[in-house]
Design a protein that fits this description.
six-stranded mixed β-sheet; 14% strand; 2 domains; 2-enoyl-CoA Hydratase, Chain A, domain 1; alpha/beta
Length: 275
């Protein structure tokens, strides 16, 4: 794993740390690729039962590092193959490159395991989108959130228009996008952008306590819960009821259900098998 992305695994919890503290963990092409690859692997790794995403130093992620976007990711074979060709620099190809490297929010949202953003300091632009894609956002009292795109004369990417509207609603999302104001941790909690706010000194302990609790929970059940919640966003109520019913039937036959029954019968704490 590159020094730009630090990976730590313990007790079923995978901690991914964006590691460019001197740039407030701004995203380069390389860091976006590394994050995508790590999330793709985590999604199917049966040992990973919960995932925490954070940033090194005093910030979570300040968004895309625009100054680095003319540089090549020398570890990306496709970029190295085509970088000297005019076709690689067309608007259509540039858009394709960005889309290829911008799927991390979708991976965080859709992976069949709980995800947590551990946020201190700035979470701006694409960094805000990464946090919004997680199931939980635990914020230090130093956290500051902003869309930031207007300040860079950009319309926004990384799925923010989708994610923020589902978290906050249309009116508040338009306000955050069009004004690009900063939102402190307490205000972020008030509007529903973060799950909880804790003192900065307690951020790691609080986040990892939650992560370990999730890692010890019923993994297949979590898979179906996330599937229900994500699918319901585009369903009618009747469709959601039908979808939930079939998933409930599937859950009743899983190893999670069998272990819970045995543990209840035996008067012990359940120990759930992995994914």
């Amino acid at each position: 794993m590159s020094e730009f992305l630090v990976k730590k695994f313990e007790d079923g919890v995978l901690l991914l740390t964006l590691n460019r503290p001197e740039r407030l963990n701004a995203l380069t092409w390389e860091l976006m690729r590394l994050l995508r690859e790590a999330l793709e692997e985590a999604a199917v790794d049966p040992g990973v039962r919960a995932l925490v995403l954070t940033g090194a130093g005093r910030g979570f992620c300040s968004g895309g590092d625009i100054r680095s976007h003319e540089q090549l990711d020398t570890a990306d074979p496709l970029s190295m193959k085509w970088s000297e060709q005019p076709v690689w620099k067309t608007q259509e190809m540039r858009a394709s490159q960005v889309m290829r490297l911008s799927v991390s929010p979708a991976l965080l949202r859709n992976m069949p395991k709980p995800t947590i953003a551990m946020v201190r300091g700035p979470a701006a632009g694409a960094g805000l989108c990464l946090a919004a894609a997680c199931d939980f956002r635990i914020a230090s009292n130093t956290a500051v959130f902003t869309t930031a795109f207007v300040k860079a004369a950009r319309s926004g990417d990384f799925g923010g228009s989708y994610l923020l509207q589902r978290l906050l609603g249309s009116a508040k999302s338009r306000e955050l996008y069009l004004l690009s104001d900063e939102v402190n941790a307490e205000e972020a909690f008030r509007i529903g952008l973060v799950t909880r706010v804790v003192p900065d000194a307690d951020l790691e302990a609080e986040t990892m306590t939650l992560a370990r609790r999730l890692a010890n929970g019923p993994p297949t059940t979590y898979r179906y819960i996330k599937r229900n919640l994500n699918a319901a966003e585009t369903m009618t109520l009747e469709q959601a009821i039908e979808f939930e019913t079939y998933n409930m039937m599937r859950c009743s036959r899983t190893e999670d259900a069998k272990e819970l029954f045995k543990a209840t019968r035996d008067g012990r704490t359940p120990t759930f098998p992995g994914y």
